Amino acid sequence: MVGRGKDVEKFLKAVFILATKGNLPVQYKAHKLRGEYAGYWECHLESDWLLVYTLTSETVFVARTGTHSDLFE
Q: What does pTM read for this prediction?
């Protein structure tokens, strides 16, 4: 997404918040996913820039990042 002109600081900030607090503020619209991504969460870094991730007590695992069409079509 950096190659598309996205601000990598938004990505790093979200991962930092997840690593330090375990959940994101409401403006990220974080929610659990279903289907092939069951067990993962998705949040919005921007309106059409998503982060798919999962958490353990020690690790933030970033599965994918991209637009809605990158990830789900």
A: 0.90
